[in-house]
C-alpha cells in the first residue's frame, strides 16, 4: 500500500494526492491517514510544499464527498420510502426515523457535517443524508472543506513530525481499521436482532 501511494505521488505529484483523496472518499480502500501522512513525509523531505499539499488534499476530500452528496440529492429522501417500508427490518429504521434525520439535518446539518469530518467511516457517509436533506451547496462545501482542512492538517503535521517512522504506523492502521469495521458489524447485528417496529 505504501509503495503504491508513494509511486503515484512521485509520478503525478500534487494531482496524485488530489486523486488519492478523492478516491478514498468515494470508496475508501486506502485510509486518508496514510495518504496525508506520507504526503507530510514528502513535505518534510522537500518533495512537496506544505500549503499546496494541504489545499489539494482537502480539495480531493471535498470532491469525493460531493459524489455522495449528489447521490443523496438526486435520490431524495422520499426515494427511500419504498426501501424503508420493504427492508426496514434489516435497516433497523422506520419511516418516522428517516423524517427525523432529515429534519435534524435541516436544522443542524452544517455542524454535523463539520464535526463528522473527524470521525472514521462516518466522515464520508454523512454526505449522503446531507444531500437527501438538500443542504445548500455552499453550507455543505464550507462545512466539509473546513473540517477536512483541520483534519488533513493534523495528518500532515503527524507525517512531518514522524517522517520516516510514519510508515511503521501502517502495521497498526490496518488492524485498527479492521477492528472498527468489526465493531460496526457487531453493533449492526445486535440492532437487527433486538429491533422491533413501533407499530
Pattern of helices and strands: HHHHHHHHHH
Count of separate DSSP helical elements: 10
Q: Helicity range of the residues?
A: over 70%
Report the principal-axis shape: globular
Kindly estimate the percentage of residues that lie in beta strands according to DSSP.
under 5%
Helix and strand composition category? mainly alpha
In total, the number of strands is 0
Short characterization:
This protein is mostly helical and 199 residues long. Helices cover 79% and strands 0% of the residues.
What report would you give on this structure?
The chain is mainly α. The chain has one domain (2-194). The chain has ten helices and no strands. It has helices at residues 2-12, 14-26, 32-44, 50-75, 81-91, 95-116, 122-125, 127-132, 137-162, 170-194. The longest helix has 26 residues, at 50-75. It is globular. The chain starts with a helix and ends in a 5-residue tail after the last helix.
Amino acid at each position: 500500500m505504501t509503495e503504491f501511494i508513494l509511486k503515484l505521488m512521485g509520478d503525478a505529484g500534487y494531482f496524485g494526492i488530489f486523486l488519492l483523496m478523492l478516491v478514498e472518499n468515494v470508496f475508501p480502500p486506502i485510509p486518508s491517514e496514510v495518504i496525508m501522512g506520507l504526503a507530510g513525509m514528502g513535505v518534510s523531505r522537500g518533495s512537496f510544499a506544505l500549503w499546496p499539499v494541504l489545499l489539494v488534499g482537502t480539495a480531493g476530500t471535498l470532491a469525493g464527498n460531493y459524489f455522495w452528496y449528489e447521490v443523496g440529492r438526486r435520490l431524495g429522501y422520499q426515494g427511500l420510502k419504498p426501501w424503508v417500508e420493504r427492508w426496514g427490518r434489516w435497516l433497523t429504521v422506520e419511516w418516522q426515523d428517516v423524517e427525523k434525520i432529515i429534519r435534524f439535518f435541516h436544522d443542524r446539518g452544517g455542524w454535523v457535517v463539520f464535526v463528522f469530518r473527524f470521525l472514521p467511516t462516518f466522515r464520508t457517509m454523512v454526505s449522503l443524508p446531507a444531500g437527501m436533506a438538500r443542504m445548500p451547496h455552499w453550507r455543505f462545501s464550507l462545512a466539509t472543506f473546513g473540517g477536512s482542512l483541520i483534519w488533513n492538517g493534523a495528518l500532515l503535521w503527524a507525517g512531518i513530525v514522524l517522517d520516516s517512522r510514519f510508515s511503521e504506523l501502517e502495521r497498526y492502521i490496518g488492524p485498527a481499521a479492521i477492528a472498527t469495521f468489526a465493531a460496526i458489524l457487531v453493533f449492526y447485528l445486535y440492532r437487527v436482532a433486538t429491533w422491533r417496529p413501533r407499530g
